[in-house]
Amino acid sequence: MSKLLFQEQVERWGMLEVSCQGPAEGNPFVDHHIQGVFTGEKETVKTDGFYDGEGVYKVRFMPSFEGS
After folding, report:
1. Contact (CB, 8 A) for 52 and 19
2. Model pLDDT, residue 8
3. pLDDT tens for residues 42-57?
4. CB atoms closer than 10 angstroms to residue 21
5. Can you tell me the distance from the alpha carbon of 19 to that of 42, in angstroms, rounded to the nearest whole number?
6. Domain holding 68: CATH number?
7. Is the pTM for the entire model greater than 0.90?
8. Residue 26, Cα to own-chain centre: how many angstroms?
9. How many domains does the chain have?
10. 8-state DSSP, 33
11. Are 4 and 49 spatial neighbours (Cβ–Cβ below 8 Å)?
12. Hey, how many other C-beta atoms are within 10 angstroms of the C-beta on 68?
């Protein structure tokens, strides 16, 4: 995977989306897996990502608490 692209801040109940380039060969819907782990002061959330096409993989997260 290459470098991650994401916004530095997201509002409470806003959507954070992390994107990265990855393998596009084979069947990216079943041959590859991406997962994000988001840790804050009050919670840790693991969420599965998805293949978005053209070698791009994404993980989305919606924080439920304010903070770092």
Report:
1. yes
2. 75
3. 889 999 999 999 899 9
4. 14
5. 24
6. 2.60.40.10
7. no
8. 21
9. 1
10. -
11. no
12. 6
